[in-house]
Structures are given as structure tokens and as C-alpha cells.
Amino acid sequence: MSDAPIRPIPQPGILDIAPYVPGKSGAPGSSYIKLSSNESPLGASPKAIAAFRSVADTLDIYPEGTSKILRTALGEVHGIDPELIVCGNGSDDLLHLLAQCYLGQGDEAIMSRYGFSVYPIITKAAGASIVMVDEDDYTADVDAILATVTPRTKIIWLANPNNPTGTYLPDAEIRRLHAGLRQDIMLVIDNAYAEYVTAEDFTTGANLVREASNVVMVRTFSKMGLAAARIGWMVGPDHVVDAINRIRGPFNVNLPAQLAGAAAARDSEFNDRLKAHNAQWRDWITAELDASNHFRVIPSQANFVMVLFPDAEHATLAFETLRDRGLIVREIGASYGIPDGLRISIGSEQAMRGVAGILNALVKVA
């Protein structure tokens, strides 16, 4: 007779899922600069902060259940019908709902090799299998993705720009990918870093969503200063919106977050300043580290850069040295399978100069 305790058992496959591991948040001592989670280098919009505070005396009242305040603002700013927008508790919430709606036992979802590490979690949690496709120099490979499609394929997860590489596919490639898919396969374009893109041939995919019946675009406020508020949104065809609204949690976006998100979306002055700061220091640190010929910085369109070192040992040494100097960056070996790389969020001028100085000093010592 077994001595194992009798207790509830998770569904098959749940305990095989590797949990999401966030970037480290602390360092030895009391003073540190966090460059591990791709947060806004300029904080939050002052208008969003004021909007959040404005409802402090009404926390006892349920919010309107469809996030109408936020959907209306997003529709105005982005030229989208608010009825085709669904808001969530962060974009992860919406990605989970998409997987739950459109994946099941025996199905497959495809992602690029170094795509966002949440995709395997939500795919497996829905009972489906994740299929990883090799990339072309850390960039999603459209031909390889299309060649991997099978009758079991139901979703393509595509982060554009991608985390942790910072690479992107231009509009023409997104359209070529979509054109090669069956109409019953959903293309999910995850635009978490769209606010920071400066490439002229990039589009969010919003026009493709309008034109097609199997494309969804997912966005977030987390990278533009509201990470703590947990606000995500998606736009999709009416039949997808209907399905997601049937299973999303009631009141899934709280009122302070709705108001803060609406204010942040409309604060074009702050958003323009945030984008300009990021572009300046993203380009600066890329050039500064590339000039040493000891690192390789993958060209990024996000609010971070991925730096490749000669090997995993050098990457670990760089991480530990930065950490000991109060600069926390993201190791991406265990979570993304890039042991010789570090992901470094774009921060203040002081932080960027500090990172470059420390890494260049390491080269001289070596």
C-alpha cells in the first residue's frame, strides 16, 4: 500500500511547465539601479499618476466591467473601434485567454526559438504543444515558421519586436507570414515594445487585424511607465473579441488602472519624450559596446539591448561585476537559452554610462 498522501492532482502536463522567472530586482546593499525588467527609464506619465490618485476615495466601488474608459481612450489615440478592443490585467492575461480559447489537447502553437518565455507556459497550460523554430541571427525566420506548420497548428506567437533579442520583422515580412497561413491559424502579434520602435518599415499590424479574420494584436502599458498597474489590451476581429469576453474575468482591470492607462495613452508629450530618450541611449550604448570588438550588441528596436559575450563564463562575470556595482541586468541563459548573453534595459544617462564603463573596463582587465 502506498504511503503517498491523497490530495488534488493537477491536470497532466502542468507540473512539467517551467515557471516564468523574472529578472532580479535587488543587489547587495541598499542602493541599486534595476535594468533587468525593461521598465520605463523616465517613470510614469505625471497625468497617469494624477489619474490613479484621483480615485483613492472610491476604492469600495466596482469598476465598469468592460474597461470602457480605457477602451475609449485607446480607440481615440490609435484610430481603432473600441468595440474591437479587450483590456486585461497585463498583456499576459490576454495571451493566457487566447491560448485557453484557441488551443487544446493535440494542438500545436509555433514560436521562434528566442521568443517570449511566457508562450510555452500558456501553450502547455492549455494542453497543447509548443514548437520552437530556429531563428536567423536572432531574428524570427518567416520561411522556417511556415515550413513548420502542420495540420495541428492553431496559433503562431510572434513578439514584434522580440524579447529578449530586440529584433523585429518589418510589415512586409509580417504580411508574407500571414499570407502563408491557413485561415484557421491565428497569428498573434505581441507588440509589447511598439512604443519604442524607430524603424520606418515597422507597423504594429493593426491594419492587418482590420483586413483579416485570423490576426490579433496585443499591447501593454508595462513598458511605458505603468508596469505596477498591470494593464494590457488587444485588438482583434469581432468573433475573437466575443470569445475572449466570454471567459475573461469580470472587472479584470481595476478602476485606478483604467484611468491611469487612459491618461497615459493620451499623454503624447510624455510618450514622445520617453521614446526619444530611449532611442538616444539605446543607440549610444550599442555603439559604445560594439566599438570594443569584445562584445556584440544585437541591433534593437525595443527599450533594451541584448549583449553577446565570447562565452557563458564572460557573461556571468559581466553580470556579477555589474551587480556588485549596483547595476542589475538580466541573465538569459536559463530562461531563454542564450548563456553567453545579457539583456540590459535602457535606463538613465548615468546608468548607461555606468554599464558601458564597467563592461569596457572588464575588457581591459582581461
What are the key terms here?
single chain; alpha/beta; Aspartate Aminotransferase, domain 1; Aspartate Aminotransferase, domain 2; 13 strands
For the largest beta sheet, what order do the strands appear in spatially?
2-8-7-6-5-3-4
The CATH architecture name of the largest domain reads 3-Layer(aba) Sandwich
Q: Which sequence of SSEs, written as H and E, runs from N to C?
A: EHHEHEHEHEHEHEEHHHEEHEEHEH
Query: How many β strands by DSSP?
Result: 13
Q: Which secondary-structure class do the elements indicate? A: alpha/beta
Oligomer state of the chains in this structure: single chain
- Average pLDDT: 94
- The level 1 CATH classification of the largest domain is Alpha Beta
The total count of helices amounts to 13
What is the CATH fold-level name of the largest domain? Aspartate Aminotransferase, domain 2
Distance between the termini: 61 Å
List the domain count as a whole number: 2
Main β-sheet description = 7 strands, mixed
Instruction: Provide the low-confidence segments as ranges.
Output: none
Give the DSSP E fraction (strand runs of 2 or more residues).
Answer: 15-25%
| CATH superfamily label of the largest domain | Type I PLP-dependent aspartate aminotransferase-like (Major domain)
Q: Helicity level, as a percent range?
A: 25-40%
Keywords: Amino-acid biosynthesis, Aminotransferase, Histidine biosynthesis, Pyridoxal phosphate, Transferase
Family: Belongs to the class-II pyridoxal-phosphate-dependent aminotransferase family. Histidinol-phosphate aminotransferase subfamily.
Catalytic activity: L-histidinol phosphate + 2-oxoglutarate = 3-(imidazol-4-yl)-2-oxopropyl phosphate + L-glutamate
GO molecular function, one term: pyridoxal phosphate binding
